[in-house]
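agent> Task received from the user: take the single chain below, predict its 3D structure, and emit C-alpha cells. No templates, no multimer pairing.
agent> Plan: (1) validate residues, (2) run structure prediction, (3) serialize to C-alpha cells, (4) report one or two observations.
agent> Step 1 OK, no nonstandard residues flagged.
tool_call: predict_structure(input=
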Amino acid sequence: MQKQKIAIVSLTSCEGCQFALLDLGQKFLDLMNEVEMVDFRLLEDEEDAGEKLDIGIVEGNPTTEENIETLKKLRERSKFLVVLGNCAAMGGVPEIKNYQEQKNTIKHVYKYVQGIDNPEVKEVDNFVKVDFTFPGCPITGEEFLKYFPELLEGKIPTIPDQPVCVECKKRGNRCLLLDKKPCFGPMIQGGCDAVCPTSKMMCQGCRGLRPTANVKAMRATLKNFMTDEEFENTTEIFGLRDDIEEKNNK
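)
tool_result: status=success, residues=250
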C-alpha cells in the first residue's frame, strides 16, 4: 500500500511548534514511518519536487510575498491543509505590531527603513482555506499524536469544546481566580494540559476562544482583577484580541 505524502512547511516563524513535534522523540518518528515525508527541513535537506500531497502542514505567518506564494502553492497541492500553532492560526506574538504603532514599529528595528517591506500580520486563513488547526504556542505534541491519525484516515478531527479549567481541575490546581489573579482559562479552548496555570501563570489564550466562550461574562469577572487596558494588552500577546472583537460584533 502506497504511503500518504505529507509536508511540513515553515513560513515566518520561530519553528517552536515543529520542535514540539521533535520533542516527542520516538513517538513522532514512529508516526512518520507510516507516511512519506516530502518536506520537513528540520529532518531532511532533499528538494521538494512539488508533487501532490495528502496533508500539507504549515507553521508561521505569511508575512512576505514569498511566504504567500509558498502557502498558496501548498494549498493547491494538498488534500488537507493543516495549520500548526498560534502564529499561523491567530497571528501570534508578531501580530502585536498591528495593535501598537503598526507601520511605525519598523523604526524601532531598522535604522534605515526605506525599501523594507512591512506588511500587516495576518493569519493563514486570510489567504487560503484551512481544514484543521493544531492550536497553541507551541502546540501540544500529544495532541498532534492524537488527531493526526484521523487526518490520515481522511477525517477532520473535532477538538472538544471544553475550557482550560477542566484540565486545571484534573491536575489538582487551585483556581487563580479564587486568589483574585487574572486568568483567561474559562473562555479558552482546552487541550494544553493547563501548563501555564499549573506554573501559577495566567492563561493568556494562545489556543484561542472556545466555540461557546462567554467573553462578556469573562471580562466582567476580570474587571475585579485587571484594568480594561491590562485586559486589552494581554489579549494582544497571542492575537486573541481579533477573535474577541469578532465574537462581540456577531
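agent> Step 4: summary for the user.
The CA atoms of residues 48 and 211 lie 37 Å apart.
agent> Done.
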